Amino acid sequence: MAYISIPSMWRTLKPRYRLIGAKCRKCGMICFPPRRICMKCGETDNFEEVKLSGRGKVYSYTIIARGATVYEHRREGLSGGAFPIALIELEEGIRVLGQITDCKPEEVRIGMEVEVVFRRIYEQDGIIRYGYKFRPVRFRKIKERKA
Amino acid sequence: MKVGISSYGVYIPKYRIKSDEYVKVWGYFAAARVKEKAVARFDEDSLTMAVEASINALENAGLQPESLDALYFATTTPPYEEKLLSASLASSLGCRKDIALADYTNSTRDGVTALLSCMDFVRSGRGKWALAVASDNPISTPESDLEHGLGASATAFLVGSGDVIAEFEDACQVGWESWGGRFRRYGKKHTVVLGITPLERVEYTGLLSYVIKRLMEKRNLKIKDVKYLVLHQIDGRIPYRIAASLGFNDEQIRDSMLVSLVGDTGVCSSLIGFVNVLDKAEPGDRILVASYGSGAGADAFTLIVSGNKSGKSFPSISDYLESREYVDYATYLRWRRILLTET
Q1: Whole-angstrom Cα distance, residue B106 to residue B183?
Q2: How far is A130 from chain B (nearest CA, A)?
């Protein structure tokens, strides 16, 4: 992972803490993380904020082995060992990259239903870097349970 | 004006450790009648657990975070010793910038203190909605008896007026200087207890009994007027003794005794039991909650469940208790960063 300075971290808190994306006012494309130029139609600086559902399915994944952990994740690597990273296809139809938590690496499957959670990602420059991860859906709403 | 709890939410981590794991390593388990306790994963702390409980409380109410006028956050294990954590919480929920924020971080009674402050905030008319969040992940040295019982969880209570599900009645707060309970010196990582048994008994049992008696005298309440008694739980035995010495029977306290399944969760120690009681309570039931904090102080309050209450919160305590996976003692030490010597 590239180094993220504290000002850069602060400017991007909305997507990191609350999964806020940018929806193009011209073509409706949702970009995550938010960007200035639409990935689909090229429209510039014409977006509205949209909170993503955080619910989706694992599209693809890989396991970061303990030894392959980048330096800033070293302490998390020591505490937790190998960890999965996945591309999540959200209900909104876009794909988001994130770690999978509350789950053994060998239990991750393509198509597994996940939901977003707020967790500690790593520490750097004396700051705790919080952000989103995904976990296997833990509870189903009562109406979904009956279905 | 009717002021009280409009909705609530809870969070218990997925992982548990059984008391047998301690017996394997130490030859005994110090926390009486605690079968297992909740363990925060290494990527969780008091703030991340608080976010989940808060989201649950807001979703149960169908309220947007922008509607909150106050957010009070209680924990004895703040991720930063100095830094406004209620601001971090507000940003992760998506609250407005003009919001009353406060952190309560010095004592295990603070969860209830924050809740009482929210009641005062709404009753004074300063705002319509206040959220009291308590979240804790206490830690002590692995060789101490105190450490055996320490668990992790979070609760959040949305305080409002009008159509509340439980109406606030009255409160009583007491305190005096003492060293009988646990404390953590400035800059220290671990909470400790001196282990002076006579002082411990006077402090925990004494303060809780005193505050409950004072509140009941003030409101002229009899034992039978209270359907549920919820006590701060340092283990699964002493609260029953305190209840019995005051004249309460086991039935009045049993539903709140979650310590046997989640451990002593610090600022949530009484509130998590309160959530379980709220899940079960019927309209008209009076609930008395009493919380203790070393140092020492105690807070007690009563509420009456109203006709607006329908069903359990989602996810309920029983949902969380069923959703669990066990870890061994070595994993527990690694996740708590007790095995890591490098800071």
Answers
A1: 9
A2: 8
ipTM: 0.95
Cβ–Cβ contact B139 with A under 8 A? no
Query: Tell me, which fold does domain B3-166+321-335 have in CATH?
Result: Peroxisomal Thiolase; Chain A, domain 1 (3.40.47)
**Model pTM score:** 0.96
CATH number of the domain located at residue range(s) B170-305 in this protein = 3.40.47.10
Q: Is residue A102 within 8 angstroms of chain B, CB to CB? A: yes
Domains of chain A: 54-146 (2.40.50)
Angle between helix B271-280 and B110-123 (nearest 10)? 60
Of B42, B45, B93, the CB nearest to A80: B42
Task: Enumerate the β-bridge partners of residue B36.
Answer: B18
Contacts of B340 in chain A (CB under 8 A): 75, 78-79
User: How much is the pLDDT for A2?
Assistant: 74
- Return mean pLDDT, chain B: 95
Using the 8-state DSSP alphabet, how is residue B183 labeled? Answer: E
Chain B interface includes A118 (CB < 8 A): yes
The answer to whether A120 faces chain B, any CB pair under 8 Å, is: yes
Q: Is the pLDDT of residue B64 over 80?
A: yes
CATH 3.40.47.10 domain locations along chain B: 3-166+321-335, 170-305
Tokens of A127: 């700051």
Quote the pLDDT of residue B342: 63
By DSSP bridging, strand B297-305 and strand B286-293 are antiparallel
Our CA angle for A123, A30, A54, nearest 5°, is 50
CA dist B42 and B36 (Å) reads: 18
- Give the DSSP per-residue string, B125-180: TS-S-EEEEEEE-----TTSHHHHHB--EEEEEEEEESS-SEEEEEEEEEE----S
